[in-house]
Amino acid sequence: MKTKVKPVSPEAIEEAAQLIRAGELVGMPTETVYGLGANALDENAVRKIFEAKGRPGDNPLIVHVSSVEEIPALVREIPAAARKLMDAFWPGPMTLILPKADCIPSAVSAGLDTVGIRLPASEAARALIAAAGRPIAAPSANRSGKPSPTTAQHVFEDMDGRIPMILDGGACEVGVESSVIDATGEVPIILRPGGITPEMVQEVIGRVSVDEHVMSPLSEGDIVRSPGMKYKHYAPKAKTVIFDGAPENVIAAICARYDALIAAGEKPAILGFDEHDFGERTRISLGSVKRPNEAAARLFGALRELDERGETVALCEAVEATGIGLAVMNRMGRAAGFDIERV
Asked: What is the pTM assigned to this prediction?
């Protein structure tokens, strides 16, 4: 199969929509990361997503819609708190877990009685969904376990020959996947943090909790209620270690570890902030420590750059786990298998 990459245009969107209707896969831009889209109501098409990604079957998918009006046909109920969140944050980088309707194939929900629904802010994504006339199931368009793609080139690197088409909408603005919020209970639960932060959710609905496994792996036998919970995700080939503590302690610890790794014949690189001085050591910028949204936008690209450069160890500065920093730490933590050193 030859994979075409086409810039977003009305003609390209219509071609991609025809592929979706025909049961094929399309790499699609969103404001968070690039998605690997298929007709969410076609179980055979959905199974192609798992094959192309090498994705475990117990990892549920998110269903993307082009308008709120499409949602009632896909779910059994929309709780009051969910409606408030929809009004506040859609279109946007938020997925709501809701009781699924029978039309949602079990492959989408990984056998669960719920489904994740999202109305993306990306105009290109919404235009594709509308043109296809189908809700689109779409996880991130990377090979399973690798860093998520934030450019069409990243998708091509992972999916060339596996899918017929990629829509190129430029670099993703947010850079980390959507916040996933379980809205089925009395108190909504953030299962995966993202651009819609716990603080933002709390302002709208008053009470919200954050799942305990946002910063730790699931235990054996735990149910995967959201994408990005169970498996080691977002990981480069390089061994990844996070250093957390006062900035001066983190900088000193990273520099000492870097020098020891060089002496041992490794190729380390530092993922660090622009304000911090690591001397002449190899560093990939996470942006300004004062603007954690920059770290969110740059993280996956930085992890992919490690592999492109052949680095063997990544030494990462931790981000304060508040606001969107919680999403950055969640992704960085999973990339590192939660190997976090307190210094």
From this structure: 0.93
